[in-house]
TrEMBL record:
It comes from the Bacteria. It comes from Thermopolyspora flexuosa. Residues 6-60 form the DUF397 domain. InterPro entries: DUF397. This is Uncharacterized protein DUF397.
Amino acid sequence: MDLSKAAWRKSTHSGGNMGECVEVATNIPGIVAVRDSKNPDGPVLTFTQAEWRAFLSKIKSHA
């Protein structure tokens, strides 16, 4: 999967943990990509739009 054009943005819930946060790219058609900002060249998780919505919904229900 080519993520070279991914527009990464930091989570709005990222705190001041010395820059440790999650970055998300939603501009790639059909997927949402997630990575660790401390390791931008490391592994990336990918989700379908439906999987991402379900993930966020589950997190919000436990917040």
